[in-house]
Amino acid sequence: STFLKAIFQEPRPFLTIPGLQRVGPIPGGSSFPSSHTAAAFALFWGTLFAKNRWWPLVLLYAVGISLSRLYLGVHYPTDLLGGIVLSLLCCWIVTRLWNRAIRHRKESI
What we know:
By secondary structure, the chain is mainly α. It has five helices and no strands. It has helices spanning 2-8, 13-16, 35-49, 55-71, 77-108. α3 runs antiparallel to α4 and α3 (35-49) runs parallel beside α5. It is elongated.
């Protein structure tokens, strides 16, 4: 997400929307994508892909983290969507590589 933030350099909502009140400290960096959302949803995707029975609880956690970023006035809804998609893509790639490595290891034994 840090790489994408440097590319897009989207200003935070509290800087561009008149009257929007920010809650909490001033965050650094740009707005798109939401790193908090990406991290929370990466945990969710990993839990889901691993078929862990706790995935619904982790989904609630990830949604809560994401919505808190809107409430705090530090992200747009598109920033959250960007974080979700980024985390899905990263977890999908890691899962494919992991499964390939496991298959290769089993074949070499």
